[in-house]
What does this fold into?
Amino acid sequence: MVKAISYTVVAFALCVGLFIFTDLYLTRQFGEFSTALDALYTKIEDETATVEDGNAVRALWSDKKEKLHIFIPHNDISYIDYWLGECCGLLKNGNYELAIGKIEVLKEIAKNLPDAYTVRLENIF
It folds into this structure.
Protein backbone atom coordinates (compact mmCIF):
# COMPACT_ATOMS: atom_id res chain seq x y z
CA MET A 1 0.00 0.00 0.00
CA VAL A 2 2.77 2.46 0.93
CA LYS A 3 4.65 1.51 -2.21
CA ALA A 4 1.65 2.29 -4.44
CA ILE A 5 1.13 5.66 -2.77
CA SER A 6 4.83 6.47 -3.15
CA TYR A 7 4.76 5.62 -6.85
CA THR A 8 1.66 7.74 -7.32
CA VAL A 9 3.22 10.72 -5.56
CA VAL A 10 6.43 10.39 -7.60
CA ALA A 11 4.48 10.10 -10.87
CA PHE A 12 2.41 13.15 -9.95
CA ALA A 13 5.55 15.14 -9.09
CA LEU A 14 7.18 14.16 -12.39
CA CYS A 15 4.08 15.26 -14.32
CA VAL A 16 3.97 18.60 -12.52
CA GLY A 17 7.69 19.09 -13.23
CA LEU A 18 7.18 18.29 -16.90
CA PHE A 19 4.26 20.71 -17.15
CA ILE A 20 6.28 23.50 -15.54
CA PHE A 21 9.27 22.84 -17.80
CA THR A 22 7.06 22.83 -20.91
CA ASP A 23 5.41 26.10 -19.92
CA LEU A 24 8.73 27.84 -19.26
CA TYR A 25 10.33 26.45 -22.41
CA LEU A 26 7.49 27.48 -24.72
CA THR A 27 7.30 30.92 -23.15
CA ARG A 28 11.03 31.46 -23.65
CA GLN A 29 11.09 30.17 -27.24
CA PHE A 30 8.13 32.24 -28.36
CA GLY A 31 9.43 35.25 -26.41
CA GLU A 32 12.63 35.22 -28.48
CA PHE A 33 10.61 34.77 -31.67
CA SER A 34 8.31 37.64 -30.69
CA THR A 35 11.31 39.91 -30.11
CA ALA A 36 12.57 39.14 -33.62
CA LEU A 37 9.10 39.80 -35.04
CA ASP A 38 8.93 43.13 -33.22
CA ALA A 39 12.26 44.18 -34.72
CA LEU A 40 11.10 43.17 -38.19
CA TYR A 41 7.79 44.97 -37.64
CA THR A 42 9.66 48.18 -36.82
CA LYS A 43 11.79 47.89 -39.94
CA ILE A 44 8.74 47.22 -42.11
CA GLU A 45 6.97 50.19 -40.57
CA ASP A 46 9.97 52.38 -41.41
CA GLU A 47 10.09 50.76 -44.87
CA THR A 48 13.73 49.81 -44.35
CA ALA A 49 13.19 46.04 -44.15
CA THR A 50 14.92 43.85 -46.70
CA VAL A 51 14.53 40.25 -47.72
CA GLU A 52 17.58 39.45 -45.61
CA ASP A 53 15.78 40.76 -42.53
CA GLY A 54 12.85 38.47 -43.27
CA ASN A 55 15.17 35.57 -43.93
CA ALA A 56 16.94 36.19 -40.62
CA VAL A 57 13.61 35.85 -38.78
CA ARG A 58 12.83 32.80 -40.90
CA ALA A 59 16.19 31.23 -39.95
CA LEU A 60 15.53 31.93 -36.27
CA TRP A 61 12.11 30.31 -36.57
CA SER A 62 13.56 27.35 -38.45
CA ASP A 63 15.98 26.73 -35.60
CA LYS A 64 13.22 26.98 -33.00
CA LYS A 65 10.65 24.86 -34.80
CA GLU A 66 12.96 21.84 -34.89
CA LYS A 67 12.67 21.64 -31.11
CA LEU A 68 9.07 22.81 -30.83
CA HIS A 69 7.72 19.82 -32.79
CA ILE A 70 7.92 17.90 -29.52
CA PHE A 71 5.54 20.24 -27.72
CA ILE A 72 3.10 21.66 -30.27
CA PRO A 73 1.30 20.12 -33.27
CA HIS A 74 2.83 20.29 -36.72
CA ASN A 75 -0.19 22.18 -38.07
CA ASP A 76 0.47 25.13 -35.77
CA ILE A 77 4.11 25.19 -36.82
CA SER A 78 3.26 25.05 -40.51
CA TYR A 79 0.76 27.88 -39.95
CA ILE A 80 3.61 30.11 -38.79
CA ASP A 81 5.73 28.92 -41.74
CA TYR A 82 2.92 29.93 -44.09
CA TRP A 83 2.55 33.47 -42.72
CA LEU A 84 6.30 33.99 -42.50
CA GLY A 85 6.74 32.82 -46.09
CA GLU A 86 4.09 35.26 -47.28
CA CYS A 87 5.75 38.09 -45.39
CA CYS A 88 9.16 37.32 -46.90
CA GLY A 89 7.61 37.22 -50.36
CA LEU A 90 6.03 40.60 -49.84
CA LEU A 91 9.32 42.03 -48.59
CA LYS A 92 11.01 40.73 -51.72
CA ASN A 93 8.53 42.73 -53.79
CA GLY A 94 8.81 45.79 -51.54
CA ASN A 95 5.12 45.63 -50.59
CA TYR A 96 5.42 46.97 -47.05
CA GLU A 97 1.70 47.64 -46.54
CA LEU A 98 0.72 44.00 -46.96
CA ALA A 99 3.84 42.72 -45.18
CA ILE A 100 2.95 44.64 -42.04
CA GLY A 101 -0.41 42.86 -41.93
CA LYS A 102 1.33 39.49 -42.11
CA ILE A 103 3.70 40.45 -39.30
CA GLU A 104 0.77 41.55 -37.15
CA VAL A 105 -0.82 38.12 -37.62
CA LEU A 106 2.49 36.45 -36.75
CA LYS A 107 2.82 38.56 -33.62
CA GLU A 108 -0.66 37.49 -32.49
CA ILE A 109 0.12 33.84 -33.19
CA ALA A 110 3.41 34.06 -31.27
CA LYS A 111 1.58 35.69 -28.36
CA ASN A 112 -1.37 33.28 -28.22
CA LEU A 113 0.09 29.94 -29.28
CA PRO A 114 2.10 29.15 -26.12
CA ASP A 115 -0.97 29.87 -23.98
CA ALA A 116 -2.88 27.15 -25.81
CA TYR A 117 -0.42 24.51 -24.58
CA THR A 118 0.16 25.55 -21.02
CA VAL A 119 -1.49 23.73 -18.16
CA ARG A 120 -4.55 25.74 -17.30
CA LEU A 121 -8.01 24.79 -16.26
CA GLU A 122 -9.53 25.91 -19.58
CA ASN A 123 -6.99 23.84 -21.53
CA ILE A 124 -7.75 20.71 -19.54
CA PHE A 125 -11.53 20.75 -19.75
